Amino acid sequence: MTAKKRPVNLNLFTMKFPVTAIASILHRVSGFVLFLFIPLLLWIFSLSMTAGGFARLQSVQQCWVMRLLEWLLLSGFIYHVIAGIRHLCMDAGYFEGKENGKFSAVIVALVSLVLILAVGGWFV
Asked: Could you tell me which CATH class the domain 27-37+63-124 is placed in?
């Protein structure tokens, strides 16, 4: 009887993931974070519908912590949309190969990074 080769270390922080796995994991994480922000966004939207609430939101928005949170939320949204387009293309039969998948994952990361930095510059 031969011994089967099984992974010895299942610590996710020591494993090296391919770029396609990282892109997919980040897409799921960004979607989950956006889902968690839905109640806050709905509350902000309802508050903005009144004159007093809108003025209060404008004053709170001047705080750097709020601007940072807004930028982080938009960053997650940008990445999720770009990676979602990649996943839709893969569902349609494009970028399914190993090399094409790597290329599309790198493109998603670069396009997202450029757009996130552009939005960050707009917030400053």
From this structure: mainly alpha
Contact 95, 103 (CB under 8 A): yes
Question: How remote is the C-alpha of 115 from its chain's centroid?
Answer: 12
Whether pTM exceeds 0.90: no
Amino acid letter, residue 86: R
A 10 A CB-CB count for 4 gives 5
**DSSP characters over 53-101:** HHHHHHHHTTSHHHHHHHHHHHHHHHHHHHHHHHHHHHHTTSS-SHHHH
Residue-wise pLDDT for 70-106, tens only, equals 999 999 999 999 999 999 999 999 988 889 999 999 9
